[in-house]
Amino acid sequence: MFSIRQESLFSLEEILEMSPKKSYPLLFDPLDITPLLRAVSKKALFGAPTRLNYSSMIYSLFIRVIVRIPTIKDLRRRLKNSLEFRLDCGFTLADSVPSEASYSRMIQKNPCLICFRENPK
């Protein structure tokens, strides 16, 4: 099997030194979250609210790790208090900040997101 090594335009250090408005698109544009969205999409009338912005929730979990936010509670606090951070995560002004329970349900539905749990078992 052959492998082709693709050279990167920026090193990880250069991306982290850029402002979030420039660095987050560089990190997330090549990332295909469609399989993750399919796993968490709403299929029934009961359960999680249907008005959640799941793609922004997934991006905010990635950003939580990059920025070293320790808990989902702290992530929610940052989303509530910083409009700029909220927009950087992909939420719109009309989106409400998801609850801890919404994040928990999304992580439980998708095995690929298990690494984002606060207390991995």
Order of helices and strands: HHHHHHH
Classify the beta-strand content into a percent band.
under 5%
- Supply the helix-strand structural class: mainly alpha
How many alpha or pi helices? 7
Instruction: Please outline the major beta sheet.
Output: none
Globular, elongated, flat, extended or rod-shaped: what is the shape? globular
* First-to-last CA distance: 36 Å
Mean pLDDT: 79
The helix content is: 40-55%
Number of strands: 0
Q: Which residues form runs of ≥5 with pLDDT under 50?
A: none
Radius of gyration: 16 Å
What does the model show?
This protein has 121 residues and is mainly α. It has a domain at 58-121. It contains seven helices and no strands. The chain has helices at 12-17, 20-28, 34-40, 54-67, 72-81, 83-88, 100-109. The termini are far apart. The mean pLDDT is 79.
Question: Can you summarize this structure?
Answer:
By secondary structure, this protein is mostly helical. It contains seven helices and no strands.
Keywords for this structure?
mainly alpha, globular, 7 helices, about 120 residues
Describe the SSE topology.
Blueprint (H helix, E strand, L loop, with lengths): L11 H6 L2 H9 L5 H7 L13 H14 L4 H10 L1 H6 L11 H10 L12
